[in-house]
Amino acid sequence: INAEYMGIKSSANLSMGCGASANPTSVPEPATPANGKTHLPTSVASHATVPSVSTVTTAHVAVPSVSTVTTAHVAIPSVPAVTSAHVVVPSVPSISVPSVPATTTSTSTGPVVLDTQLAGHTAEHKAGSLSFLKEDGKILKPAQSGARGDRELDFYNLTVPGAEFDVLATKNLIPKFFGTKMHEGHQYIVLEDVGATYANPCMCDLKMGTQSYDEDCTPEQAAERHAKDAKTTTVSTGYRICGMRVYQTTDRQFKKMPREVGAALTAQNVVQEGLREYFLNPAFRPDVLHETIAAIKHIQEWMNTQSLLRLYSASILLVYEGDPSLPPRVQAKLIDFAHWVRNTSGPSRHDEGFILGLNNLLTGLNSLHA
Questions:
Q1: Chain segment 148-203, per-residue pLDDT in tens
Q2: Rounded to an integer, what distance in angstroms lies between the CA atom of residue 233 and that of residue 208?
Q3: Residues 204-231, buried b or exposed e (16+ Cβ, 10 A)?
Q4: Are 217 and 341 in contact (CB under 8 A)?
Q5: pLDDT tens, 60-85?
Q6: How many CB atoms lie within 10 A of CB 32?
Q7: Please, are residues 5 and 331 in contact by the beta-carbon 8 Å criterion?
Q8: What is the tens place of the pLDDT at every residue in 80-112?
Q9: From CA 4, how far away is CA 141, in angstroms rounded?
Q10: Residues pairing with 240 in the sheet
Q11: What HEC string does the chain produce?
């Protein structure tokens, strides 16, 4: 089970919207340059010897010039003294060694499959879907086909500086957005890899809101999605655990909670058998709990005041450092925007389903202090 980030939550059992799986348009990707290395030439001879000069009385004696060498020692023998002759010894040319450019080794071998993905499209999970990839501290999220893919890309474009929803970026509520990239004929949305700088990143993906479908669904589709949501904690609590991985210091392995386990939790046990597991490392981490509550409240403050958006089927991605000897560095980010819509009901109406989920989530987390 890998991390979304960490991803789009779509599966055969828990489809989050009314679109299709990813199938972007093909455009070739430029090749990656190979590494180079510069070697110095090897000298043919280790020493170059200037021939000795005989003593003369009435002649000028010229010593043959010495060829330039690059990596050799040049030995010049002493010249015997002369009495009545002018001996001309030519100057020895200076030895020139060419500069060697620094050897550079590329750290990028191209995108690879993301190993921290919790939910979303993976080849192992759903035939024909695309995996999340990672490269140079960034996530490559496969763009979905049709309206859902266009809608999510539109959302991120509206969060860049100066755009309509740039407050989400300035408040650090979402991962950084780096545009798009074509890879092997498919389009990917390039985002910050939130877990890239952690030694052992613990992560939890929480699907927020009381419905996982948007307003573009037909009545029949909405009824079908609602029936599925009602079998999970989505309708009753306003949040659902879609995946989790927690580093265990005892065996240095990650304990994982698949989406199927999270979907089977109920309103009665989701806190103690679900949320609590995220803070067992394996010892309970009250420091992480305290910082997680503060990070979620930061999202809550914005959600309670904004009336521009309704974030259907969006998630909160939680992250902390699993090595207890390191600072926990807790983060909470909003992700997954394939089903967002503008609020057309006026400024007095907020995203009630998302807000209900935040309130119940914070109530459950605060109960873990006891």
A1: 899 999 999 999 999 999 999 999 999 999 999 999 999 999 999 999 999 999 99
A2: 10
A3: bbbbbbbbbbbebbeeeebeebbebbee
A4: no
A5: 434 344 444 344 444 444 544 444 44
A6: 10
A7: no
A8: 444 444 444 444 444 333 333 333 233 457 889
A9: 9
A10: 207
A11: CCCCCCCCCCCCCCCCCCCCCCCCCCCCCCCCCCCCCCCCCCCCCCEEECCCCCCCCCCCEECCCCCCCCCCEEECCCCCCCCCCCEECCCCCCCCCCCCCCCCCCCCCCCEECCCCCCCCCCCCCCCCCCCEEECCEEEEECCCHHHHHHHHHHHHCCCCCCCCCHHHHCCCCCCEEEEEEECCEEEEEEECCCCCCCCEEEEEEEECCCCCCCCCCHHHHHHHHHHHHCCCHHHHCEEEEEEEEEECCCCEEEEECHHHHHHCCCCCHHHHHHHHHHECCCECHHHHHHHHHHHHHHHHHHHHCCCEEECCCEEEEEEECCCCCCCCCEEEEECCCCEEECCCCCCCCCHHHHHHHHHHHHHHHHCCC
CB atoms within 10 A of CB 63: 17
Sheet of 315-321: strands edge to edge?
253-257, 239-248, 201-208, 315-321, 331-335
Alpha-carbon distance 259 to 263, whole Å? 6
β partners of residue 133: 113, 140
Task: Say what percent of the chain tops pLDDT 70.
Answer: 67
Question: Hey, how many other C-beta atoms are within 10 angstroms of the C-beta on 236?
Answer: 16
